[in-house]
Every structure is written in C-alpha cells, then in structure tokens.
Specification:
about 300 residues; alpha/beta; TIM Barrel; 3-stranded antiparallel sheet; 13 strands
Length: about 300
Amino acid sequence: MADTEYRVAKVRGKEVPWDPEQMRRVREHPCFSEGACHAFGRCHLPVAPACNIQCNYCIRDFDCVNESRPGVTTRVLKPDEAVEMLRKALEKFPYIKVVGIAGPGEPLANEETFETLRLLHEEFPNVIKCISTNGLLLPEKIDLIHKYDVGNITVTLNAIDPAIGEKIYSWINYHGRRYEGRKAAEILLENQLKGIEMAVERRMFVKINTVYIPGINEDHIPEIAKKVGEMGVYNFNVIPLIPQYRFEHIAPPTMAMKRKMQDECAKYVRQMRHCARCRADAIGKLGQDMQSCLYSEEK
C-alpha cells in the first residue's frame, strides 16, 4: 500500500493528515495493511468470555486447535496471565507489533478487557493496541479505550437496516435488559453507528467486518460499505459466513462471490482482502499462528 493512501483521514467529510505515530499503526498492523501481514504479527489475548449479543451464525461452545475462526480459544486468560503471555510472545516472536483483544466474547462487555488494557498501557506503551467489538457498548466505552491508547478498532456491522438486522441477531443484552427482534436490531445499529462516528472523530483507525450471509444480507452489503465509507472508516472486510448455529443450513458464498462483493464495495471504501478469520488467541503472522507453542510451554 502506498503512503499516499493513508496520509490523510476523513473526519466529517474533511481530510485530516495523520501524524507519524498514527501512520505506524497502519504500516505495522497486519489487518490494516496487506504489506504488514507478511512482515509483522499480532497477539490476541483471550480475556473476554462474556457476550452481550447472540448472532445467529455464532457458537462458541468448543475449541479445535486446527480451527481458525472468531470465538475460538484454547482457554480464557486472566489479565495478569494475558500480560505474561504477551511478554513470552514478544520474546519468542519479535516481529509481533500488535496486541489485540477479540474475545472469545465481546471485549467491551468484560471488565477484564479494561484491566488488561490498563496493564498493557503501563508496560507496553509502544505496542499497537487493537479491539474488536460488536459496537453495542462502543459509545460509552470509547473514551476509556482511547485513554489506554487503543488506536485501531474493528466493528462487526452486518446491517444498516434493522429489518435485516433482526434476521441476523437473536437478542441483545443492553444495560441488564434483554431485547429481541426489531428493537434489538435498532438499539444495536444506533450504537454501532454512533460508536464508529466517535472513533473516527478521535482519529482512531476503524475497520468494519461484515459477515456475508447469502439470502440474508448479500444485496445489502454494498449499502453498508457506502455508509461507512462516507463516515471515514479506514477499511472494510467482507467475511464469508461459516455455517453454524441457526444459519448452519445456509451455504457460504464462494470465493468468486466474495471477490465480486469486494469489488463492488471497493467503489466506496478500501477493502481488506487478506483476512485469516483469526482465533481469539491467535499469535504470530496471519496464517502462521504459533499460539500452541506458548500453551505447550505452560505445561
């Protein structure tokens, strides 16, 4: 990726230049730069087991060491264990530049996430910090994660029409109350869009993950790309459905279908075309996960 592609950000329609540190957060982040994925690695710390929404394509009840998908981890770590895991990872794999929290549940719904970020902020100020979220709590947690120097955020946004969203989500738990159907989709979408806007305003790099679900949101995905492109997100990641849970009967899109969708969405926003659908405890370069090495050392 050429420097000129990430020297400016778009905030409320205006181009704002990135500073050198912000540019580094793209150059060295495997998910935000395709070139970086060949040279640099990431360390995902699985400290967040609880989730506040139920997606109809998500199940987190088992682990397989050969499986690479969100929601999978060998075990959940406590914050101090997670920091120790990063120490070992950086010592063993010095090419790691990014530490992320991506589950196995929803990071912003777990207090352990914020304790882990606090510890990381104190001990590893130069490591790029990243969060993946469904966005439900992003508006109210944005300043806290910004305080801990989280500069890269991934938001999973599968619909910008609640009529489609209610087909994708079974329920949400928002401030201790459970919502289902259209109301759940409306609350989730409102918070997702508000959180994305707030993150962009704080000069964070925002990536959008959209799960491509044939027969559910496939005709809608370009609209999502257009909307978030206008909002100033950095890049957009089309993720083919993994058939499971309530969507286990839906055939996933083919690679040709995915490429066609990416090409259509590229009219509106930069595409991430090298996603490895990482585990919640992934360590190493994309496609070369090494977490099993560190787990075996614990025994």
